[in-house]
Write a structure and sequence with these properties.
About 25% of the residues lie in helices and about 25% in strands. It is an alpha/beta fold. The protein has 3 domains: about 10-350, TIM Barrel, CATH 3.20.20.80; about 355-475 and about 510-520 and about 555-595, Rossmann fold (3-Layer(aba) Sandwich), CATH 3.40.50; about 605-695, Sandwich (Immunoglobulin-like), CATH 2.60.40. Helix 7 (about 260-270) crosses helix 10. It is built from 14 helices and 33 strands. It binds zinc ion. The site of zinc ion (ZN) has 7 residues, from helix 5.
Length: about 700
Amino acid sequence: MSQRLPRYSRLLLDMHIPDWDAAFLSEYDPRKVVEAYLASGADSVMVYCQSHVGLCYWPTVTGKPHAAMDGRDWLGESLAALREAGKEVYGYYSVIFNNAAYLTHAEWRIVPRPTMAGGAFHGKRYGHVCPNNPEYREFVQAQIDELFARYAFDGFFFDMTFWPGICECRACQQRFSAETGNRIPHIVDWNDATWCAFQRAREQWMVEFACFLTALVKRVSDIPVYHNFAVSLFNWTRGVSFDLARHNDFLGGDFYGDRDEQFLMGRLMLNLSRQRPIEYMTSRCVHITEHVNTKSSAQLQAQAFAALALSAAFRLIDAIEPAGTVSDDVYSMMRAIFERIRPYQPYLGGQPVEDVVVYISDQSKMSPAENGKHAHDPQLRFFPAPHLTAARAAVTRLREQRLAVGVITRRQLDGLARYKVIVLPEVTRMSSDEVDAFTRYVHGGGSLYVSGIGGTYTPDGGSADFLLCECMGLSRVGALAGDTVYLRPVDEELRELLRPQSFIAVNESVQEIAIRSPDVETLAFVSLPYAYPHEGAVDDRQWASIHSSPPSVHTQIPGITLHRYGRGNVIYAAVPLERSPHHSGRRSFQWLIDRLLEGRVSFRARTFDHVWLTVFHQPEQKRFIVHLLNYPSDLPAVPVRSVRIEFGHGLDCRFVSVRELPGNREIDFSSDASGRHTAIVDELNDYKMLSLAYD
Ligand SMILES: [Zn+2]
């Protein structure tokens, strides 16, 4: 690998265009499109070798060339023009989503046909073939061999390395039977070992397919290879386990969600990727299903700055017109966005600084509420997994606290001691190595937050008690009936914080727990409505107020507990407060995290909740790079004044300067006796990068 700086400003032109109409791509000219790429100022471009349609953009003999090429070699011409301009070039190749293969090889198809229901996609347009089909694999191998015999790339991207549906084709049936001796089950049941084994098999098959694809490239060309990681936090149906990351040189994916998603996925990929930078791809249109509606410049610019704040490469996606043209205006807009981020790129990189981390489990992308549903129930495609909704909310809440926040996975299980607080947001399924690692972490002095149904399932079925019962100091009784329950804080500080409220109102399922250790302190008890669990009706007397159900019965059932275990602490919340839609629940979660942190904060920004703080350590340069991003939900951002940055606690280094980058304008900082420093950034317009140097 060369030592040159990574290329952070990247581009991709989607070309999923069929060829049944002679007008399609009839005006496409690779040289002209490359001119647009160059006008954008991008320094890395991904070019289509083939698309979801299954048509190839080189004169292939192994597959089907796009008819509009008419003997030309568009891929070769694009590559030559981009190379001439000194650009880095990645190749794009779609797997599993291949209409041409679907139409010509009925026996390769995923069976039954995935409905793709629930999203904005026109699901009926896509043809899916099964990665377990040996002939399809031979076809892909022949295509990749042919490609690399003809062309050289700087990197390669496989799109759609995930399951669009649950496949029961002959190849899948035979493989599952050979591996487990069982038939593919039809009822989702996370208590059933066979169902769990089937899901595990689906995930491992996809990992093995990614391994196969990566190896196809690696055996002929030592270039970075990656697979689209965008659906890695979709639910279990996509079958993407984090093991798949091992077959990516770095992680990246195309994202169409909001700022919370960008922060979450960035933090996840930073710690899961084998190499950095990671890559954040997004379309210039508001969604992949839109061709015209374009994001505002402010929106795209905020996403580009957010990529900087995550030390990520930023790849903008445009989509070609069916005739084969692109809009010069779009590439001018892209140029303006790339120009704003370029001055900061030389300072990117380093180790992410993370005081508080959220643990995300790829085994917990499921829901106990799915038990009993048919495996092909179209509802399952977007069925919410409690762990994922809680994890996403927890990361957002912590980001809003402007702490140094991270996301970890089982890849970090051996090094948990470095984190000050670990959040387990309804981590529903836990394996024994996770239970051991978290228990050891707390015993050795770590601080853990656990919520809801965390640790109530193993990877093979249900568990009678919390798997972390020992370090939580609690036993699980069951779930309280109904979904109107109150938590009644007894801790004075929390009571003060919530004033004028005396309760935290909860509108979802709450776990009933029993204390099993004398070292458990109850921070909040459960209160219930009048005549609980009755809902009340016009002809009964089982209610106290006609519109609402005020707290009435004040039980001694613990709702939030603190267990001192070994040298550490565990807070358990019987309902995931991090997911609360209300200020009181969210604020309570943040307070609990602050309580666990006990002031051990290496970096914190005091300003509005919508300002991002991220920090990377660059020990070779003896500095920390601090990113501040002004990213409200409504753009453009109004400038924020007097952003106070507190830093230094526990870092064991003598800070000598705080400077704005680029330009090195110095900012004063003050220090107190405890080793905590404070710097004030007078004005934050949209984004600011600081260098905190030490000697
Ligand atoms: Zn199959």
